[in-house]
Amino acid sequence: MAERGRPKGANGEESRALLLKVAANEFAQNGYHNTKVSSIVKGANLSQPAFYLYFKNKEAIFEELEDLFHLRMIEFTKKSRLEPNLQLSTLKERIVYGLQNLLEYLAKNPDLTRIGFYISTRAGELKKQLVNEIKENLDFEVSLGYFRKDVDTQMVAESLIGMIERLTFSQLLSKQKEPAQIANNIVNLLLYGILETQLFLGDKNEQTW
Amino acid sequence: MAERGRPKGANGEESRALLLKVAANEFAQNGYHNTKVSSIVKGANLSQPAFYLYFKNKEAIFEELEDLFHLRMIEFTKKSRLEPNLQLSTLKERIVYGLQNLLEYLAKNPDLTRIGFYISTRAGELKKQLVNEIKENLDFEVSLGYFRKDVDTQMVAESLIGMIERLTFSQLLSKQKEPAQIANNIVNLLLYGILETQLFLGDKNEQTW
Amino acid sequence: MAERGRPKGANGEESRALLLKVAANEFAQNGYHNTKVSSIVKGANLSQPAFYLYFKNKEAIFEELEDLFHLRMIEFTKKSRLEPNLQLSTLKERIVYGLQNLLEYLAKNPDLTRIGFYISTRAGELKKQLVNEIKENLDFEVSLGYFRKDVDTQMVAESLIGMIERLTFSQLLSKQKEPAQIANNIVNLLLYGILETQLFLGDKNEQTW
Amino acid sequence: MAERGRPKGANGEESRALLLKVAANEFAQNGYHNTKVSSIVKGANLSQPAFYLYFKNKEAIFEELEDLFHLRMIEFTKKSRLEPNLQLSTLKERIVYGLQNLLEYLAKNPDLTRIGFYISTRAGELKKQLVNEIKENLDFEVSLGYFRKDVDTQMVAESLIGMIERLTFSQLLSKQKEPAQIANNIVNLLLYGILETQLFLGDKNEQTW
DNA sequence: AATGAATGAGTGTTCATTCAT
DNA sequence: CATGAATGAACACTCATTCAT
């Protein structure tokens, strides 16, 4: 008899998970206020009271989704710090690798991503944390001699987050580009800039950050 | 004594402008749904029906603010295309100049900026337009030989918008840095990247975008 | 054209007063929980939002009614303290007078009375206050030589409140007896007791309170 | 080891009794509407369906508690009728005895008392019955010559119930006074009144109930 | 004897919007 | 130009009660 014939969610955990999934989708699509509890439960084939069996209220389920994303993001960022004694080729590889991992997670969890990056009122807070984490990594990596000593690591970290955010939305979630491509592009841009090398070589002393 | 005898906002245009100003602030602070018509009119010392004298509904006043920002942004972007025959130093100057102008506008209109960049549901659409505009500029500029031919101008344009957006929020609106500083930072990063030059020179053939 | 033709409550104060009146009746009849905001507004020919124009919420309108009664009761009690140098006949008259006044107020405000005495969760608190007030009056009056020195004034005060409460409900609000009658009965009982005088006279030393 | 292997309340009667006990407490503390079936079963360590194994619904368990109290009260009142040929001292003793018994029961069953006297919507009905019973007793006792023929026995009965009710709540259940004390106080007040005897003797013809 | 899971029916409250003046 | 008064339409949330096991 397996699953069929069983009341929809005889297993409470399943119902809960389903609600979370549906809610993530609705929130991602319509935002917090335009997502009604009634439509979440409808999507999960449950009644309204069932919702309150598993979540204190509408805010609570949203926060649970926020937190989930939050935690993952922090994890990814922590893992991205570079080790000493890398060569340029490995260095790039390593950076791309970390970034690609992150982007792959985002691509696999588009709803959560949209919520965590754009819809959550705590998105700003999250990004600030990510920036801080990245800045520390960068400071360390500058000290390792990987990057110029004259860069403002705070600004670079902010820029990186801005790029990730934007490209995630416009290229990744819309499936225009693969995580690997995006990661490569970001890293190349960040490492080398876009200036035509000839101009650069003939004029490089000029830059003052 | 100008106003003598006349009720507070007897001048319709004044009332309208005041409503717009208050609304911008409320929307920027609290978002669309958490901004109530009742609180807008309270902030403008008017009654609720007065609101509907000047705006069709809540959506309309929001859209008016959105559009205002939208138009300015497009303008700024159009003005930023580079002319031919620039030297590196001038080139940078020119880019920084355009960017700084834009950032100065954003800094002067923080509410509008927040609305247009973060709160408007059409923010995505706006950014897409800006990206397109910038991409076209870049393509042109690449053809002028200013930038590498191997860069993906779409990605660069997206990245630039992402950086602007992020730094606007975290550095500009929070008054951590001046428009000029931010513009300089962005341009340097974009033009030169962050790679330690030694590594770069010894390894430059490797890059494949 | 006067009142007719005017939208139901063009005068806000009227609407508010009407709501209070209807609410008092509903609360008195059905208790707090069985009184729905919907039925209050129906009784006042208003819509539900109108209710919230005048009262913060259901609790607030109930508390306003509670407080109204509360204040009146305290007033009546304060006014009932006896002056010195009264003769028995005047003494009784005076006590009856105060009590009758109180009962007349209760009779004229049956809804408020039911709310304040039986429905309010703060009824206990109110009665305690009234008891205290009465006890102090009694202590003073005992010192004037009006009443026996061996009575426990606290107990008498409690008893008096108990009698008033009970007779209000069973005789006054049900219109079985007039305020004057009830006041007289209470006073006689309280002053003289019910014991057959013969027994009393022949045995009066026995009492030990 | 009695309970070994058996689920918590394997004995149905025990579960039922427990539910009744918990319910009595909750109802007494919070009233009917603020007592939730969910909190009753929680207090009894049972599930919600278990509740409906023993009681038809929430109303039924409440009524059962009401009835329990109701019956006891009627019993006590019936037993309190006085026999003929008592002397004053014995008379008082007898009255006090009956009253004390009643109060002792109330003191031992505070939850039931609160429910039956204050919370039950049938409290009014019960009190009316008690009053009737007492009035009949009084009529009989007046005919025996114990009490004045000019007292309104209905009013006295109502007053007595009012006093019992009030003192039960304020002195007995709050453990300020013992049943015996309260009984004595009530009886003394009822029999002799509070008037200073000198005034009384010099003026006693005046009373007209 | 007992329960995990679920729901029908309601209820207070909010908000954008409008009518009559 | 302006408002006091009012409302339609929704929505989150609660609670007693029941089904299937």
Q: Describe it for me?
A:
The structure is a homotetramer of 209-residue chains. Chain A is an all-alpha fold. Chain A folds into two domains: 12-55, Homeodomain-like (Arc Repressor Mutant, subunit A); 62-194, Tetracycline Repressor, domain 2, CATH 1.10.357. Chain A has ten helices and no strands. Chain A is elongated, with a radius of gyration of 22 Å. Chain A starts with 11 loop residues before the first helix and ends in a 6-residue tail after the last helix. Chains in contact: A-B, C-D. Chains C and D meet through helix 5, helix 7, helix 8, helix 9 and helix 10 of C and helix 5, helix 7, helix 8, helix 9 and helix 10 of D. Chain A binds a DNA duplex (21 and 21 nucleotides) through residues 6-12, 15, 36-38, 46-53, 57-58. Chains A, B, C, D: Keywords: DNA-binding.
Q: What tags apply to this protein structure?
A:
0% strand; homotetramer; Arc Repressor Mutant, subunit A; Tetracycline Repressor, domain 2; DNA binding (chains A, B, C, D); disordered C terminus; HTH-type_Tx_Regulator (chains A, B, C, D); 209 residues; Tet_transcr_reg_TetR-rel_C_sf (chains A, B, C, D); 2 domains; mainly alpha; DNA-binding; disordered N terminus
